[in-house]
Specification:
Helix content is 41%, strand content 25%. The chain is an alpha/beta fold.
């Protein structure tokens, strides 16, 4: 799904937009009014990824049209195009969750670049750091589904269920957001990891997706070590005054995964799937508070830069043979 739909009551504008995207490697559609545009989205739901609508049109205006389209498919990127740009119009568009705001007259090259930028930002701003976003913006095929090598990191708070039973909900949410997700997320950001998802008190981070790097595994290990150091620091400030403690276990695994945008029409995410994801999650489950465990594939990549201790082969759920596991003890 990567097609473009242009909605404008002026035939000349529609022709100009069609010419601007004549050589684009995806289908383009046009409609002369809001209702026809909504109908096209309904009939071409698997083809249209971006809708650009004129702001002032007879009948439904552009904002009403894009709101209706968003209600049908919230995954579609929605952009207002207008020759009557006003602060009021921009505020209204923003309040309705419109993804972008473009003005007439437009230069074709600039228009294509802006549309691409808005689309990428919509789908990536919650996933990756700004440096990765900039690189992806130079490589429009980076989000195409593919198999590739990554390093996956899972982090989880030890004894969280027990703590939750003795902590008011408001305090628990503050603890998760302010003492865990935010500081750990900043470390992930600085080391150019992709925050794939939060699962309860766990977080999954991927290094090497959407963009691969030669040092993905090393950055993942360094990220884990910094996260554990930060957790110890934060845990020390809690002073045992509450039931809350920040002791985390981290698992790391490297290998080949599938990465792409998956999900339903109402909820999608860019994620990685495969055995390294499962192994990292299992190793995280085995790690004690303060520990970092990694699989042999990661160990072989990061040696000799990261000293690690070999543990006895370990049987984990979902893997037929025992795994060789290595433990990193972060410096105190």
């Amino acid at each position: 799904m990567n097609g473009l739909l242009f909605i404008d009551d002026e035939e000349g504008v529609r022709r100009s937009l069609k010419r601007a995207f004549k050589r684009a490697p995806y289908p383009t559609f046009t409609a002369s009014n809001g209702r026809d545009g909504i109908g096209l989205v309904a009939s071409q739901k698997d083809a249209i990824a971006t809708v650009i609508s004129d702001y002032r049109m007879p009948g439904l205006d552009g904002l009403e049209t894009l709101v209706a389209i968003g209600n049908m498919n919230p995954d579609i990127t929605r952009i207002i195009l207008t020759g009557y740009a006003t602060m009021e119009a921009a505020i209204m568009a923003t309040n309705e969750g419109i993804d972008g705001f473009l003005t007439k007259p437009f230069d074709n090259i600039e228009l294509r670049a802006k549309i691409h930028d808005i689309w990428v930002r919509k789908h990536l701003k919650q996933f990756v750091s700004e440096p990765i976003y900039k690189e992806i913006n130079k490589s429009p095929n980076a989000l195409e589904p593919r198999f590739h090598n990554v390093t996956v990191l899972f982090s989880d708070i030890r004894n969280f269920t027990r703590m939750a039973q003795h902590t008011p909900p408001e305090a628990l949410v503050d603890f998760l957001n302010n003492d865990y997700f935010t500081p750990m997320g900043e470390i992930v950001y600085e080391l150019r990891g992709t925050m794939d998802k939060h699962i309860g008190d766990s977080m999954m981070v991927v290094f090497g997706s959407p963009l691969e790097g030669e040092d993905d595994a090393l950055r993942a290990v360094r990220c884990a070590m910094r996260m554990q150091a930060k957790a110890r620091q934060i845990d020390g400030t809690l002073n045992g005054s509450t039931h809350l403690q920040l002791k985390t276990g981290i698992g790391i695994a490297s290998g080949r995964v599938f990465s792409g945008i998956v999900g339903s029409m109402r909820k999608k995410e860019f994620t990685s799937l495969g055995m390294p994801v499962n192994i990292a999650a299992r190793l995280q489950g085995l790690a004690r508070g303060g520990e970092i465990l990694m699989n042999q594939a990661t160990y072989e990549i990061v040696q000799p830069a990261v000293p690690a201790e070999a543990l006895p082969p370990t049987k984990v759920k979902g893997v037929d043979s025992p795994l060789q596991v290595y433990r990193i003890n972060p410096p105190r």
